[in-house]
Specification:
CATH class of the largest domain: Alpha Beta
Strand order of the largest sheet: 9-16-15-14-10-11-12-17
Number of helices: 18
Helix content: 40-55%
Radius of gyration: 24 Å
CATH topology of the largest domain: Endonuclease, Chain A
CATH superfamily of the largest domain: Endonuclease Chain A
Strand content: 15-25%
Number of domains: 3
Number of strands: 17
Shape: globular
Structural class: alpha/beta
Distance between the termini: 44 Å
Oligomer: single chain
Length: 508
């Protein structure tokens, strides 16, 4: 037994769900390539047809209203593989989720659009009227007054307040996270959820199956359901070659009784509260909302829930009850998804950069953007705006970190100031500008967050917590190393590698 236990542990780590899935996908990919080359070898008319298909795909991409970086990589791939490239695009090039997933979610979203109609605001300033209108009209999430906010500059500051709010739940608790991982943080949350569910509180959890693949036991859903905690693993990972696996639920949402809501970068795993050290000190951000604006997160969660596990069509019982807090500016929680062609998250960032007059501070763990966003950052800096970009000093993904650094030179030349957080990994996703407007959410500045994932954030306008975000950035700057032009020198192989990474960035 003494010798058997380590042996069993070793093989259980190797032959887990993740490794088996990867192995089966690779086998399928290999078989598909073999079948393709078997079909095309020596068949002139088949090859001619595939080449013609590739040409039509390139012409289609040139005219398509789509992010330029995504179009370029496909045009290059088709140029390199004229027989295979066009067919690959037909199979893998569509950024939309599967038809089944799309129809399920769009049907529920459409049924509850009226519940997210913009109501008249009493004291909102005109400067941000256009931004509010855009998010309300194209994102379908209204702006709200009568909402109090509390900003947290790290996960360990948020965690005790989160537990306290969960303890106060009387009607329902909704949680939606990209990562749920067994450990100290989840244990504290789980204990309260079990107790509340036993008391009759409606407890529901949506977690991304890919994000939580290695962090939860195989029978997690069964365990939770046994304690009356209803669960949905979002877009379950299956061992098949499929682009559907690209579309992940990256949101972080907590709603308690429709009265209190949370979002930010913090997942339910120990590194987010620095109970486990990964890549040095983990720097994150979160926002707590109380009042009318929580309704947006409630509807966002219920729409996702009812798309996969229909439970109710009337959301009225989940609306906030009782007196609302005094107004503190305007708060507009919003979501973004690949269900449509509207890049809400990116457009919000564009608007903040375009309207900035004095400064824009940006926290992001990953930076991989298209030419349009790169141009917006450079344009803001060139017209005298103090644009500062805060990034991790210790990366969690080395190739992605190298890709991020490939953008430094053009940004620095334009006047953007770049800082790397030296104590560890910076995971916060925040914008703050001119002491007037800020965003806290789950949205990274990379292609996946901006175009492929389900995301969310809270837009704050003339809210007191905008200053808290500003102060957090300024307090973090002394802990960072500022990057200068002299740091961006590289040799020819490094330049070639950077260029290749930039080209492949939409696929990473």
């Amino acid at each position: 037994m003494f010798f058997r236990l380590p042996f069993v542990r070793f093989f259980s780590r190797i032959f887990n769900r993740a490794t088996i899935t990867v192995a089966l996908v690779l086998l399928q990919a290999g078989w598909l390539l073999w079948a393709f080359f078997s079909l095309t070898t020596g068949r002139v008319w088949v090859n001619a047809g595939l080449q013609l298909l590739s040409l039509f795909i390139v012409l289609y991409l040139v005219r398509k209203d789509e992010d330029s970086a995504y179009k370029i990589i496909w045009i290059v791939l088709i140029g390199l593989f004229p027989l295979l490239g066009g067919a690959m695009y037909l199979v893998f090039g569509n950024k939309m989720p599967s038809k089944k997933l799309r129809l399920q979610m769009q049907k529920v979203d459409a049924a509850h659009k009226a519940e997210l109609a913009q109501q008249p605001l009493e004291h909102a300033e005109e400067r941000f009227a256009g931004l509010r209108q855009y998010v309300s009209k194209y994102g379908h999430f209204p702006a709200w007054e009568h909402t109090a906010a509390q900003y947290f500059d790290c996960g360990e500051a948020m965690y005790p307040q989160l537990l306290a709010d969960l303890e106060q739940a009387e009607k329902f608790i909704f949680l939606e996270f990209f990562i749920v991982k067994s450990g100290r943080m989840w244990a504290g949350v789980e204990e309260i959820l079990k107790r509340k569910a036993a008391q009759g509180v409606d407890v529901r959890l949506i977690y991304d199956d890919f994000g939580s693949l290695l962090g939860l036991p195989k029978d997690f859903v069964v365990r939770m359901e046994r304690h009356r905690i209803r669960c949905i693993p979002f877009n379950p990972v299956v061992p098949f070659v499929s682009v559907v696996m690209n579309h992940r639920d990256h949101r972080k949402i907590v709603v308690v009784d429709g009265r209190v809501g949370y979002t930010g970068g913090v997942n339910l795993a120990d590194e987010y509260i620095n109970a486990e050290e990964r890549f040095g000190r983990w720097k994150d951000a979160a926002i707590r909302l109380e009042g009318a604006a929580v309704w947006n997160f409630t509807v966002m969660f219920l729409n996702c829930w009812n798309a996969f596990r229909p439970s109710e069509t009337d959301y009225t019982p989940f609306a906030p009850a009782g007196p609302l807090p005094a107004s503190d500016g305007v708060v507009q929680p919003y979501g973004d998804s690949p269900l449509d062609d509207e890049p809400v998250a990116e457009t919000v960032y564009f608007n903040i950069l375009a309207q900035a007059q004095r400064y824009v501070y940006i926290d992001t763990p990953y930076f991989s953007v298209g030419e349009e966003m790169l141009g917006a950052l450079k344009a803001a800096a060139k017209r005298g705006v103090d644009v500062r970009l805060l990034l991790p000093g210790i990366p969690d993904k080395k190739l992605v970190f190298r890709l991020t650094r490939s953008y430094y030179l053009p940004l620095l030349r334009a006047g953007v100031r770049i800082y790397e957080y030296t104590p560890g990994f910076l995971h916060a996703k925040c914008y703050v500008s001119d002491d007037r407007v800020a965003v806290v959410g789950s949205i990274n500045m990379d292609y996946r967050s901006l175009f492929l994932h389900f995301e969310c954030g809270a837009l704050l306008m003339d809210n007191s917590q905008v200053l808290a975000l500003r102060d957090d950035v300024r307090a973090t700057l002394p802990l960072c190393r500022e990057v200068h032009l002299s740091d961006c020198r590289t040799n020819l192989p490094g330049t070639v590698l950077d260029s290749a990474l930039r080209l492949l960035s939409p696929l990473m």
